[in-house]
Amino acid sequence: MQPPLQWPRCGRNDFKFCRDDTAQENEIDMTVTRYPGNFRIGVLDGFADGVGDPLPCRLDPKFQILVLLAGRQVFHLDHHRIELDAETGPHAVMMHLTRSCTLRYAGSWGDPFRKIALACDCDWINQLMGEDGTRRGLLESPLGYVTWRPDTEIARLAVQIVAPPPTETTAQANLFRMSRGLEILRRCLTDHLPCGAPPTADPVAETIRLYLNRHLGHDLSLPRMESDLGLNRRSIQRHFTKSFGCTLRDYVRTERMARAHRALAEEGASVHQAAHLAGYGTVANFSTAFRRIYGVPPKDMRNRSI
Question: Was domain 203-303 assigned CATH 1.10.10.60?
Answer without folding.
Answer: yes
